[in-house]
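Worked Example 4.2. Consider the chain below.
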Amino acid sequence: MKDNDHRLFGKLTELLNTWSDKGRPGRATLHEAADELLAWRRSENVPGLWVHPPRMLGATIDDGWGHGIQLILKFAEVLGCRTHFLGLLCPIDTIVEACKKERSDILGLTVLQLDSEDDLKDLRNRLPRKVRLIAGGPVFAIDPQLPERTGVDFAARDAAHFIRHMMTDAAQ
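Applying the procedure from the previous section yields the following structure tokens:
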């Protein structure tokens, strides 16, 4: 990380500590926190956590609302990722082709339904190996072995878990 990155790392650590002390905030508060951090980064001209920012594509395969993936993409932008929202209820073919075309480093995915396991396996098998598959949604709490069975590289429990994971990745 560069010198300015330490300021962002510090702000994120402070935010995560606040959430840990006071409890997980609601969706509106999470969006406000992300918006404030983005505004701060821009006003202070603070770069993201990576010298070469990863490209993160976001989509859902069985979620018609997309609240989770929209929030994760916003925090990914706060962290310094280059983000692109593909859409809701995307077919596997569309996601795979977009990851190839966009040369994505990370695919962020929301998964809500237990019957999406075969789609996840198919997706992982067809994605370029370099694409890290980060997914979230209630199915991962219900079935903790689902990531291992489907090739999901990281299952985020919530926004804080995602941020911590990405901060660790950036620090390596």
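The mean pLDDT is 95. The beta strands are 55-60, 82-87, 106-110, 132-136, 154-156. Compare this with Example 4.1 before moving on.
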